[in-house]
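Hi F.,

I've been meaning to write this up properly since the lab meeting, where we talked about keeping a consistent format for the predictions we share between groups. The idea is simple: the sequence comes first, exactly as it goes in, then the structure tokens exactly as they come out, then a line or two of notes. No screenshots and no reformatting. I'm using this chain as the first example so we have something concrete to point to.
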Amino acid sequence: MGPRSLPLWLPGTEVGFARRSNAAYLAAGGTVRPLRDTVARALADERSRGADRERRSGLNAADEVQLLEHLAGRPRSD
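Output, unedited:
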């Protein structure tokens, strides 16, 4: 949380909070949007706000590029 923070991505479904049932929500008449639709709507919203805008948290564009290059095995020389 805060400057230079990254989201927490946990692998697999064995994590407790990722195993919560939506049975009660569905039984009450709730519906679940397909993941593809959710991702498309989130991406459209991000683009409508300006994907390159400054953020209050997370990596700036230069730091993100540096991290991606490092992870790809091509660290920058600057």
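Notes:
The mean pLDDT is 81.
The two ends are 27 Å apart (CA to CA).

If this format works for you, I'll send the rest the same way.

G.
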